[in-house]
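For reproducibility, we list the full input for the phosphoric acid mono(formamide)ester complex.
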Amino acid sequence: MKPAARHLLGIEDLDPREIVQFLDTAEVFFDVSRRRVRKVPTLRGKTVINLFYEASTRTRTSFELAGKRLSADVVNISASSSSASKGESLYDTLKTLEAMRPDVIVVRHPHSGAPHFIARHTQAGVVNAGDGTHEHPTQALLDAFTIRRAKGRIGELVVTIAGDIAHSRVARSNIHLLTRLGARVRVCAPRTLLPVGVEALGAEVFTDFDAALEGADVVMMLRIQHERLTEALIPSTREYSRTYGLTAKRLSAARPDAIVMHPGPMNRGVEIDPSVADGRQSVILDQVEAGVALRMAVLYLLAAEVGQSPLT
Ligand code: CP
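The corresponding predicted structure, in tokenized form, follows.
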């Protein structure tokens, strides 16, 4: 199998064939994490740097585990403990890391476009692990992987994405991916949390949550991105939760076999009731498990030698 691309900067850049290649490759790696010895030699001698300028639990840990389970050398850098905290620019940080000859740089940054800037100035492969409000491509890929495993397909499914659509890179990447694979995507939020022109991405827009849930196969809940709000866009958390929080009663409007997703971190009791988050329809921890396999697939497709097979 040949590497798919040198970088993974966004879903918007991918065609359906490339998306399916990531998903199919993740299937190959999925069982590695369930073995007694959770390691394959695929990326022995390769170096992966995780460069995180924003907080992360799931993405950073799963990229680290993905690299280690592929036998790569993995280095984690967070802005707060790096020389960025002394005023070093992104460019100088990058050139410093570049001199150590990494094969892949995984970057999370609060500014949209930062991974594209890095990709223009490095020989390494670059993976966008979330840039501002722009894209979070590996999250959308692991979400699609989880949906495909649960439902057996993605085409024609009705997927309701509800929450802070305006500030969510997860929503944007998922809309690109799911519409590209033929799903019928609904987005739902109060008007103040809907981005201008979201219909142009191919999603159907709702402000009535109960209507958006009607007959859904997949319900994906998103938290309010308080760290990105510059003004008050909801009257109060209590009011928001009353109107847009997913409860068991509300969920009954979706199909009986609907699955419930959340990229995390969750605000229990705000956008999702604990009984739903932990309920029988929740696949939230399946998403987390899928994250390791999917990120193994991404690192393999970017860093493996041409013609190298995934597990050797
Ligand atoms: N879903 C996600 O990006 O979670 P983290 O912020 O914990 O990485």
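The radius of gyration is 19 Å. The chain is about 35% helix and 15% strand. Both points were considered when choosing residues for closer inspection.
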